[in-house]
Amino acid sequence: AIWMALWFPSRETAMSTLPPAGTSAQDFFERFVPDAFKATPLPEDAREIDVTLGVKLDGDGGGEWRFHLNRGEMKIERGSTEDAAFTLIQSVADWRGALWEGRGGVFGRQSQSMFQPGAGAGAAGAMSPVALARLQALRGVIRMVVTGGPGGDWSVDFKLGPGPVPAEPTTSVTIAAADADALERGELDPMQAFMSGKIMVAGDMTLMMQMQAIQMQAQAAAQAKKV
Fold this sequence. Notes:
By secondary structure, this protein is an alpha+beta fold. The chain has helices at 2-6, 25-38, 92-100, 105-113, 119-126, 129-136, 177-185, 190-195, 205-226, and strands spanning 50-58, 63-70, 73-78, 86-91, 140-147, 154-160, 171-176, 199-203.
């Protein structure tokens, strides 16, 4: 996911650095996240990025927040996410479930890792301004659904492009929690999982393929820089 490419720290930082489970969404995004972002300096190439990200949480205690990342600085404010290039959309229950209750399997753990100290450095360096520009040209909503995990089914939506949130996602991807964990461990091949129906895709597959192609190109470019 793009959020992973923008804020993705090492797995070792997970859980131990999160605030208490009872933390409100407002305190989390307006106090904890800015401190977490500042905890690790950004690499030089990340300072070229200028992008607005959004988070929209539905339910009691939810709301909308805008994160403007511009040349190594982040400004966070509460307000409409309609102008955001990328927006994470989730229920308050599933958001809390991912961060503090172990819900969502591997995808929940990735959601958890987005807001850890040091994440800013890992992300922005992995996603180039060129790749971000290509992704911002896409439009649609991808929904990830994890079934059968602790606490019941879990989902998260990722919206590409500005504008209001549509009533239904453009593409839905559904996977059982056990299969998601097997993918993470390398015990299940993604293509085999798709062909066997363990990964079920509904809606516009083109959008997902376009995203994957851009991310693969960005990863390849990042690897080439290291050589």
